[in-house]
Amino acid sequence: MTFTDKLKNYDTLVFSAIAFFAIYLFCSYNGVGISPDSIMYTSAARNFVAHGNLHTFNHAPIVDFPVFYPTYLGVISFITRLDPTVFGWWLDALMFGALIYCSGYIMSRFVPTSRVYKWLVLAAIILNPGLLQVYTYLWSETLFILEVLLFMIVFRQYLVNHAGKWLVFAALIAAVACITRYAAVTIVGTGGLILLLDRTLPIRKKIGHILIFGFISISLLVANLWFNALHTGTVTGPREPSITPFIKNLYYFGTVFCEWLGFTPNMYFLATPLAIVILAGFIAALAFNFYRRKLNSYENLAIAFALVYGLFIVLSSTFSRYERINPRLLSPMYIPALWGYTSWGLLFLKRLANHKLRTVVAVVFIAAMLGYITKIFMVDRDRYKDQIADEYGNPGYTDNDWMESKFAAYLKTMDKSIFKPGITIYSDAHEAVYFFSGMSAYLVPHKFFKKDVEKFYRIKRFYLIWFNNLENPELINLKDIKAHKQLKTIKDFGEEGGIYEYDESVK
Q: How many Å apart are CA 141 and CA 180, to the nearest integer?
């Protein structure tokens, strides 16, 4: 092995260590960030360790999310005897380091390759504010993004030699990814698209490989959805139709890329044209590679995944309502998109015969990348100053607002006997009730589901824990409830909220 070959590994290890340290910095004040999704994962992981099931804090199987990530947390918790909220930042830091190592491994095999290019892109990956946010929270994206790169590594090996064992291995990674995040169907779509476009395979063999890949890659997802339907009556939990049209979702898609490129909000008028250019560029690049019969490169795999994933998010947001398109939702797309729109520079430089012109183009490319890296570094610096240096913490249920909340402090220490056994507790933030008190609570109904709202108003007795600062416009609100029910105040926390009781027998 030559010194250059060794450097391919050693320099990547250095960047991996930097990535680990970056997560340590952002979790140094209050540990890993805890959001409502994090509490769902954590409660299921705790039940996995304690009872061998994947029930959440409300005693129902986890349905809104696939089963693998909470299982993953549960296994680690069982081995370490630590709670996910304790080891969470270590796990995120290790996975972010592994992500950087996989990225370096892949870029070392670009055609052509360049160490300077690899270093610049690795720095851009580490400093991306969206990825740094994801890897400072207990979110399933932390594992899913790593699975995307592992799939690329294995599937590319299959594309080189078309060996069945590599196809099966890639399909197994896709299968696990599908029960990590439902959006991992985009990995299946990417593999299927490349297989369909691959003109080096005989038709009969191609059909066989597509069937093998498709069957294995969706097998665990089908099992997960079947289990959900059997035990809860829904395959992915209650879903509301979208209220956001396609063109608006395309705009939101573009705003994320504006943010990643360092544009200020007053430049978001470029969002929709930018989104169209990005997606159209991926389509054109994929078509060009198909024409050249160059589908087996890492660069092409990155382009194919970025296209499939980007279209999936925009289209699914148009038909199903979930959180607005944001950097977290698009985070799995960042690395493939970055490769897709920068790797062409290496090929362009290789084809330039004029040495002086090649030098000029290389200097311009390096200067542009350094400018971009500097821009996102400044964003990260401001976030660090606001959240860590100023001792606020990662936003969520462990930040200073909650740590200094009288309501949260009361929930942690209250005498739970104030709640009579057998009486259901409702809340506008049932995960917060569990996180601070350890008690189970149920979410008040969504306004969209009229029958659930009517059923709630027919309940003759219940408790209500209400957080004013977490009010969700999609849920019935406290004013609505008070208009139908005469609530008795058990504990009032002013602007923070309160604890109430309704008993129809007491007038």
A: 8
pLDDT the model gives residue 81: 96
Taking the CB of residue 182, how many other CB atoms lie within 10 A of it?
18
Mean pLDDT of the 52-75 span: 94
Q: What contacts 341, CB < 8 A, 6 or more positions away?
A: 278, 281
Give the containing element (helix H, strand E) for 276. Answer: helix 271-291
Is residue 284 classed as helix, strand or coil in its secondary structure?
A: helix
Q: Is 491 in a helix, a strand, or coil? A: strand
Q: Supply angle C-alpha 114, 120, 123, rounded to 5.
A: 135
C-alpha closest to that of 143 among 45, 237, 261: 45
- What number is the average pLDDT over the span 400-425? 93
Place of tokens 């977290």: 328
Q: Who's near 40: CB < 8 A, 6+ residues apart?
A: 56, 57, 62, 64, 65, 70, 431
Band (pLDDT 50/70/90 cuts) for residue 113 is confident
- Find, among 102, 129, 168, 174, the residue nearest to 339 by Cα: 102
Structure confidence by residue, pLDDT tens digits, 133-170: 999 999 999 999 999 999 999 999 999 999 999 999 99
Q: Please, what's the b/e burial string for 284-309 (b: 16 or more CB within 10 A of its CB; e: otherwise)?
A: ebbeebeeeeebbbbbbbbbbbbbbb
Q: Within 10 A of 185 (CB to CB), how many other CB atoms are there? A: 20
Check: CB of residue 86 under 8 Å from CB of residue 77: no
pTM as predicted = 0.94
HEC secondary structure over 384-403? HHHHHHCCCCCCCCCCHHHH
Nearest to 110 by CA among 288, 302, 270: 302
Distances (CA, A) of 439 to 40, 73, 397, 436: 13, 21, 16, 8
Long-range contacts of 253-260 (CB under 8 A, 24+ apart): 253/310, 253/313, 253/314, 253/325, 253/330, 254/278, 256/130, 256/325, 256/326, 256/327, 256/329, 256/330, 257/337, 259/129, 259/130, 259/327, 260/128, 260/129, 260/130, 260/327, 260/334, 260/376
Residue whose entry in the numeric block shows the structure tokens 């993953």: 72
Q: What distance lies between CA 378 and its chain's CA centroid? A: 23
Confidence band of 9 (pLDDT split at 50, 70, 90): confident
β-bridge mates for residue 461, sequence order? 503
